[in-house]
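Response to reviewer comment R2.3. The reviewers asked that we include at least one raw input/output pair. We reproduce the pair for MFS transporter here without editing.
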Amino acid sequence: MTDVLRRGRASLAFGFFAQGVAFALLVTRIPAIQDRYGVSDALLPVFLAAVPVLAGVGSVVSERLVRRVRPSRLLRWSQPVVLLALLGVGAGDRVAVLAVALAVFGLSVGALDASMNMLGVSLQRAYGRSIMLGFHATYSLGGILGASLAWAGAHWDLALWVSYLPVVVVLLPAALVGSWWYVDGDGGGPAGAAVEQGSGGAGVGFKVLLPLCLVMTFAYIGDSTVSNWSAKYLQDVLGSSEQLATVPYNVYMVTTLVGRALGDFGVRRFGAVAVVRGGAVVAAGGFAVVASAPGAWVGMLGFTLLGLGLCVLVPQTFAAAGRLAAERDGRPGASDAAVARLNVFNYVGFLIGSPLVGALGDAWSYRGAMLVPMVLVLVTVVYARSFGDRPDRYGGGHERPRTADVGRGSNGL
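Raw output as returned:
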């Protein structure tokens, strides 16, 4: 069992890493994609919005699919599709090809995100201790590598397909090989075994998950604010140079990686509630520093705090949803269904965040606009109790699960 779990953990971590690379390669080369296909500034937002919308659809479809197939199988085949769709974006020559490639990318990335987090939650349940933040740390590491490869491609003026092809050639077979060691919700055996028909849990309603859905939305509003507005804010509001304006997002990514790499230890020592509350307070403080910064260097300090604060919220929200579903609905698949539903609000937050800050910045001021995600992130403090373990659950000084419970189905927390 130990060897099975270790292999499952390593292979899933690689899956998170590969997805981080692929997503970063797409979003950081948007200007090059626009130039290659001649997409107008008016049409570009339509293409960009279509990806998270279709990803939400893919996540909803995943909730239904995992009632009949294991999440490991869904992840095994969605990840190659994402990589091939990325290559299609780089290799096409007509707008219609771009539209199809982005549509496939969006649908498959929704299934990929949902199934990755399903497996992460179930592995954490089988381990009996917090490991979810570690998976998201490898995603951040992949994002840093992908952004670096994108920078190299732009610096050397490489064609998109030249930048994308080596990455796909390396990651696709590696992901397929690694997928044979995925571990599903029963905590034992390799992926791909038969699933009991109709086992997908549908008993955890939206009302129960609502606090976690709000936390997920607010976290991604904060994240999209940094990714879309940090450079413009530093340059236009705080008067930095164009070169310095590129630094905050890189700093944000690095501090996100560091925070997630250390976050599991914090959850084990202090508990999920304390870590989530602390993360929300630090993130809100980061937005406050950004909004009141007198200059660029203080602004970068604020974005650093944002990386350290926001990084813990999303992984812990997925973990809390899986735990809550397993406690309330003992059927196999209840946790998977809850994770798929929650994953939709990842894209809701992404869609809301960027236009919200832009509209407030134009109508009011960009300093004032930064206060809105600050308030929303602070709301997480109110909902932090939703992340609490029962007294007999692991984490934060609670009693560790009995050995006989590790690896069981929905009640083996």
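Residues 114 and 340 are 5 Å apart (CA to CA). DSSP finds 16 helices and no strands in the chain. Further pairs are available on request from the corresponding author.
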